[in-house]
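Lab notebook: predicted structure, single chain.

Context: the supervisor wants predicted structures on file for every construct in the current expression panel, including those that have not yet been purified. This is the next one on the list. No modifications to the sequence; it matches the entry in the shared construct table.
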Amino acid sequence: MLDFAIFAVTFVIILVGAVLYLYPSSRRASGIPGLYPTDEKDGNLQDIVNKGSLHEFLVSLHQEFGSVASFWFGGRPVVSLGSVEQLRQHINPNHTTDSFETMLKSLLGYQSGIGGGANESVIRKKLYESAINNTLKNNFPLMLKVAEELVGKWGSFPEGQHIPLCAHLLGLSLKTVTQLALGERFKDDAEIISFRKNHNAIWSEIGKGYMDDSLEKSSSRKGRYEKALSEMESMLLSAVKERKAQRKQTEFVDALLQSSLTERQIMEDCMVFTLAGCVISANLCIWALHFLSTSEEVQDKLYQELEDVLGSDPISLDKIPQLRYCQQVLNETVRTAKLTPVAARLQEVEGKVDQHVIPKETLVIYALGVVLQDSDTWSRPYRFDPDRFEEESARKSFCLLGFSGKQTCPELRFAYTVATVLLSTLVRRLKLRQLEGQVAEVRSELVSTPKEETWITVSSRNS
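Prediction complete. Output recorded below exactly as produced.
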């Protein structure tokens, strides 16, 4: 009898151990320190919701488990990297695709490559980047014109009038991106209004609804999202066909039309560029002006550089590399605001970070927002201080994270150009002031935005 009892207990222990090993939702991802799933179906999605955003969840995750940590998206294991050293180890052998674009296309349900292979992905990435570079060269005067119109409007306001940064700078970004991407049809305000309505509906769900799985749980929200996505795709396909018939070669879409991409693939790339380009450009400008409004010293230093480099001439594309302090201001804006706090890549082949093995097809999260305010990497990480980028170590860390140099996502490079044009026009004519008592809180989604409208006032620099 005792023998049977010992056998029975041993059998139960072995059975439970086998279940714990074989059942995916009962063990950590690949043995990497991290969270067990809190729900069989949703994994740790409710934990993300409870923290308020994926970024805040990752901050907590890395505080508890260190710089390499794991959790679960549904039934899928995810590895998050939260330090410069770990990102360096992972980025170097996985640099063929852009991590932000990979994540955005996945959320939209698009394919990253022409035929799915690595070579095709690289070719398509180079084509995409070349199209953006060419449209900047061909349309720089248009960017300057849009910026000058906005600055002229602000300069006409009575001194002390409150200016809503989010509303005005999203408008600037939409006008710039749509015309540079798709051509003259977006000079029409009606087209811009229609584009903005669908753009906002799509981005709001990508930024939140997809990440916390709430979209799937609301049929009305999902219906609105799918309707907006369908209307946007139809609009973009129409623009692609229109430009194809015109045979012009000045806009983003024109460069793609010279390739072997299908109309559907061109539409997808236009969707990514217009969606991400608008949001990243708008929020880079919003945060830059917000931070400038808090520091007269930084404004004056930037003004002096603009006077020294440009004199009374307008900004030109070839002068931008000479504006080193302006670059530092934008770098520090991206860092302080955690502009793109999260990126992701699919582990194409088995990899290793420190002693941890990352299996093939594991989703790898780059917790950029965690790293951008890591006190081991940045002194006084919560302070806006453009002078920190005079140090080589700061520039190297920033480059490694994909915010400068060859690793920069093309939409961010585009946004830097838009922001530089705006700052060079604005700071030479106007002084920015923050409203007393206003605090701009960050809402960290795919791109960090202010939680509420952010206001400033302006006055003439000559007054």
